[in-house]
């Protein structure tokens, strides 16, 4: 009986040490998530969240057009299943001269019968080309609201920098349109109430 008590204490102490070590390991892993995520993005060529947030903030600089160089810019579009829209680019790709401004239109249509608000999230691949792709005007800078069955054209003005690394001769600009449910609810709250016809005077 006396031997069981020390054994029980040892087991409890061992369990406590194991749980404490697990908590410390989880705490350290939480701090390591960010650098591990950035390393993963670099290895796979995926953009990190910080890089994506800087895409829409890119500002053009005055550059001389490089007429001797061509860069192929491809356009890719996806729509989240929660967003009842059609969203396509008018062309799949363009050949451009670095330093020159170009414009391309994107077509969107609300397939539902009610107003829906969406937001386009851009990304550039390969990620190394991100700092060298500038948007002068882009629908992705703001929320986009379409009434039921409404169609619209969303223009994009862009420029590829002449400082784009020489080994990159092709890049892909992708847009993923997401639904903003909070904006939808705001639209419903701000909508005017239906007019009620008054009964004619008797």
From TrEMBL:
It holds the Pfam family CtaG_Cox11. Keywords: Copper, Membrane, Signal-anchor, Transmembrane, Transmembrane helix. Signal peptide: none annotated. It is a single-pass type II membrane protein. SUPFAM superfamilies: Ctag/Cox11. GO terms for molecular function: copper ion binding. Belongs to the COX11/CtaG family. This is Cytochrome c oxidase assembly protein CtaG. It comes from Candidatus Thiodiazotropha endolucinida. The lineage of its organism: Bacteria, Pseudomonadati, Pseudomonadota, Gammaproteobacteria, Chromatiales.
